[in-house]
Design goal:
This protein is α+β, with helices and mostly antiparallel strands and about 230 residues long. It is about 30% helix and about 30% strand. It has a single domain, classed as Ribosomal Protein S5, domain 2 (2-Layer Sandwich), CATH 3.30.230. GO terms for molecular function: 3'-5'-RNA exonuclease activity; tRNA binding; tRNA nucleotidyltransferase activity. Its EC number is 2.7.7.56.
Length: about 230
Amino acid sequence: MRSFNRGALDLRPVTLTPNVNRYAEGSVQVEFGHTKVLVTCSVEDRVPPHLMGKGSGWVTAEYGMLPRATHTRGSREAAKGKQSGRTMEIQRLIGRALRASVDLQALGVRTFTLDCDVIQADGGTRTASITGAYVALVLAMRSLNKPGILKGLTPLAAVSVGVVNGEVRVDLDYDEDSTAEVDLNLVATGDGRIVEVQGTAEHKLFDRKSMDAMLDGGLAAIQQLAAAQAKVLG
């Protein structure tokens, strides 16, 4: 029996609560089952050096986990003096994903920074972060009230998929993710176009048939996530 008594291709209960931070231009708390992530989007009138003079905007992200987001307390990375490789890989993924959803030229000379802070982790923190970050980014863009800034905006979300006990499953929780034979993260648009696929044979090789089944299940779930985003954004 899966958590929340769901089927193999069913998402955990998903909640998107917008405007949870009074100061950020855009914010949302995203929940995939017991996984909870606070996402804020901040806007600054500057861009990285490689974009100066090009009239383009930028979208970037930072990711972190609160010390007691997991079963045992983890030290703050700031206390260690450096970010882990996992943290850097995840925040780069979030930034890449969100840049694929916008027209950077339409943003103007601005940087949109998405801070994704994991409050509670039960699997799928990176995919929950991406799904919530899209909502926070759109809210921030709207707050500027600049004509044309939403040009080229593409709904985008992410979900984890895997093979557990020989069965393709969508939206893995921690218990499933830690024992999965295959672990895959899928980022895609609401209309089914793929942005990024991260897939690994953890304990067992997989064939093309399994890959296709994981993509089909993941894309169907992302359609549901896009609908949830659209309901929140209006």
